[in-house]
Specification:
Radius of gyration: 24 Å
CATH superfamily: von Willebrand factor, type A domain
Number of helices: 11
Number of domains: 1
Helix content: 25-40%
CATH class: Alpha Beta
CATH architecture: 3-Layer(aba) Sandwich
Distance between the termini: 40 Å
Strand content: 15-25%
Length: 440
């Protein structure tokens, strides 16, 4: 089985995507393939088969360069440890600005070119600003990077959307760079955000980080005692003014419970928005890219929910990339040092980065951090999403039972590094079509 093909083309129009709640009424202009002239009364139906599981695969050599020219027999795909028969294999590649490479396609396997080109010709970027987990300086940095990305990289064949304040700007995806720029300009810092919740940790009595707060809030008295002993030994005068050691321990417990309660609310809202966005994008065939811009969030008690969202995204063809808006840091961790407002980042205790790591690793994306120039972070994502292989296979286990299934892609060619989604939720996909650019 030695076959490959290259997909290239483009579309223009609007796709509607309403706020996370309540459900919107869909309306908008028709999405039309650039290479096909159609009347306003026609509707575009994206062709796709839900029988195949499609896996986007990025292959790099030892230098970190993308490896072109591979064929199906160069790779192996496994589901739950069992090898699967590759029934579809092709390369998708776009130039800068969304313009396709002008190369011929090989149709040895009898795959309909129109079906593939409609699904894969366009790039879809949704920039999701996690305002509740972005401080003002991080948000300003992220907005500047997003604006430069839109000006330089959104081409006539690309769709984009700005998700903030619990919904998509104008309730839709659009091909209009000016509309996307206006959407970015409307993004504002959340009234309450993670940095404001962490601020009391810096005040006496200080709590070293999120994990300690979570342990104290869940009844870990020995943690509160250890922290109380440490801070009272270091600052006995403040300990005395606070009412003594017992009172200091009570304050630690109250502060920890307050933080965890508020952090849970912010995290719940973030995960609700992510799940809503992922489920809506599932209705569009082909690859969708969500750029999740956040400083990270409280993940204790929510790991299973995050993993479930990633599995749903993988099944629906959505790849999540994350950008840490805090820019260059001094340590190996992108979590804030809660003991000092000006101390850069801490390398211990906090788990804020775990959520974005889970989302990106599970869906085949990358997490970009330690970058002050956010436009550079966007460019890294653009390169990663513009050229990739697609493997399609029909699982040996054809029953969509809702369970998680592990995926692994291996290379028969030495020296190659492969990145793809780690698995998917075995659920049926919704109908893959648009009606006048929107979904009913």
């Amino acid at each position: 089985m030695r076959f490959t093909r290259l997909v290239f083309s483009g579309v223009a129009g609007l796709l509607l995507l309403g706020p996370a709640s309540p459900r919107p009424v869909m309306d908008g202009q028709q999405a039309v393939p650039a290479q096909t002239a159609t009347s306003d009364t026609q509707q575009l139906t994206f062709k796709s088969t839900t029988a195949l599981v499609e896996v986007d695969v990025v292959v790099h050599n030892r230098k970190g360069d993308f490896v072109p020219g591979l064929v199906a027999e160069d790779l192996q795909i496994f589901e739950d440890g069992k090898p699967q028969d590759i029934q579809q294999f092709y390369l998708v590649s776009h130039e800068r600005g969304g313009q396709p490479f002008s190369m011929a396609a090989d149709d040895q396997r009898g795959i309909q070119p129109d079906a593939l080109s409609e699904d894969r010709a366009r790039r879809i970027f949704v920039m999701m600003f996690d305002e509740a987990h972005l401080a003002n300086d991080s948000l300003l940095r992220a907005k500047a990077g997003a604006e430069e990305f839109i000006r330089e990289n959104i081409g006539p064949g690309d769709f984009g959307g700005i998700f903030s304040a619990n919904g998509m700007y104008h309730g839709r995806l659009t091909t209009s760079p000016s509309e996307l720029l206006t959407g970015v300009s409307t993004v504002k810092v959340g009234f309450e955000n993670r940095q404001s919740l962490l601020a009391p940790f810096r005040e006496f009595p200080m709590i070293p980080g999120e994990i300690d707060a979570a342990r104290i809030a869940s009844g870990g008295r020995e943690v509160a005692q250890r922290i109380r002993e440490t801070i009272c030994a270091a600052d006995p005068l403040s300990c005395q003014f606070a009412g003594g050691e017992d009172q200091v321990e009570n304050q630690l417990q109250q502060k920890a419970r307050m933080y965890v309660r508020q952090a849970r609310i912010l995290t719940s809202n973030t995960l609700h928005n992510l799940r809503y966005l992922v489920n809506r994008l599932t209705r569009i065939p082909g690859r969708k890219t969500v750029v999740f811009i956040s400083e990270g969030f409280y993940v204790e008690e929510s790991r299973s929910d995050i993993e479930a969202i990633a599995a749903e995204a993988a099944r629906g063809g959505t790849t999540i990339y994350s950008i840490d808006g805090r820019g260059l840091i001094g340590g190996s961790s992108a979590t804030p040092d809660v003991l000092s407002a000006s101390a850069g980042r801490s390398t211990t205790f906090d788990t804020g980065e775990d959520g974005p790591v889970i989302l990106t690793a599970a869906t085949g994306g990358i997490r970009v951090h330690n970058v002050d120039d956010i436009s550079r972070a966007f460019n890294m994502i653009v390169r990663d999403t513009s050229t990739y292989y697609v493997i399609g296979y029909q699982p040996d286990n054809a029953v969509m039972d809702g369970k998680f299934r592990k995926i692994e892609v291996k290379s028969r060619v030495s020296g190659l590094t492969i990145r793809s989604r780690k698995g998917y939720a075995a659920v049926k996909l919704p109908p893959m079509e648009t009606v006048r650019g929107g979904w009913q």
